[in-house]
Write a structure and sequence with these properties.
The chain is of the alpha/beta class. It has eleven helices and five strands. α1 runs antiparallel to α2 and α9 crosses α10. The two termini are 34 Å apart.
């Protein structure tokens, strides 16, 4: 719903500005005596044409700035951690050792009812054969309980044996992950503020990408998938989100080699920010 309102609002505002500007130009031309009241002229037509080109170019420039349509993808090499953080060591110790040349992809998901978690899991499952072929061992830890884990895995196809639930977001807090915006009247108010881009950099750009496809997908294709995910989560909200305290908590990604060294990491900066390159969430793996 938030994405729909943002897209409609952007279009409505720009059309309104175009109309008001056209009226203003006509008034100036009337005052200068270049056109007669109620009658057209080449000056009026030329002025309207120039204004249309200007407002159209400005609208495209702003839209491109917001969405990054023709801008290069963000760099994916930099990691917020240089080594595997201490808070992650106990989690890794409970997993079977990797074979030589294997890599472990550990997803620290936000709440399992969070649209980011659902979309990330869907991206992983879409590349599951390639991940297995490349020797990537995928594990995930998400905020929720057994009921939310069951529903999450049933909907996304993510293997339940590879998912661990953390009801108190203990790992997230231990890693110092972003807890989300604060001061907007509780979890729901904080979440809505982040949906509007407050304390959530990149969210509006990613919402708009869902409507134009980012040059790779059909227009509205991404938005339609997100709408379907929204319907799924909201239809089973109590199952997906047993504890609303963690609605704004963000996650992280870790890629670890077989010798235990950290190859790559990412810390979510806000909503719809679970990857440095959202159009290709697993680009850092170079599958």
């Amino acid at each position: 719903m938030t994405g729909n309102l943002q897209a409609i609002g952007f279009l409505f505002t720009w059309v309104l500005l175009w109309c008001l500007g056209g009226i203003g130009i006509e008034a100036l031309l009337l005052q200068a005596g270049l056109i007669a009241p109620g009658g057209g002229s080449w000056a009026g037509g030329l002025g309207f044409l120039v204004w249309t080109l200007v407002i159209g170019f400005a609208g495209w420039a702003l839209f491109n700035r917001i969405t990054g349509l023709t801008q290069p993808a963000p760099a994916t090499g930099a990691s917020p951690w240089r080594d595997v953080p201490a808070a992650l060591q106990p989690v890794l110790a409970e997993l079977a050792p990797l074979e030589n040349q294997q890599r472990r992809l550990l997803l620290v998901l936000s709440q399992l009812g969070d649209f980011d978690s659902v979309e990330y899991a869907q991206a992983v499952m879409a590349s599951w054969p390639q991940l297995l072929e490349a020797g990537v061992d995928v594990r995930a830890i998400g905020i929720g309980d057994e009921g939310s884990a069951d529903r999450f895995c049933s909907y996304t196809g993510f293997p339940k044996e590879r998912l661990t639930v953390d009801p108190e977001a203990t790992l997230h807090r231990g890693l110092g992950l972003y807890g989300g915006a604060e001061g907007f009247g509780g979890p729901w108010g904080n979440l809505l503020a982040m949906c509007a881009g407050i304390g959530s950099p990149g969210t509006l750009q990613e919402v708009l990408r869902g409507y134009h496809g980012g040059g790779r997908y059909l227009p509205f294709w991404i938005a339609s998938i997100r709408l379907r995910n929204m319907i799924e989560v909201l239809s089973h909200w109590g199952t997906y989100v047993p504890d609303e305290r963690w609605m704004t908590q963000r996650g992280a990604t870790f890629l670890i080699s077989s010798d235990g060294s950290l190859l790559y990491s990412w810390k979510d900066p806000g909503l719809l920010g679970f990857s440095a390159s959202m159009a290709e969430p697993l680009k850092f793996l170079e599958l």
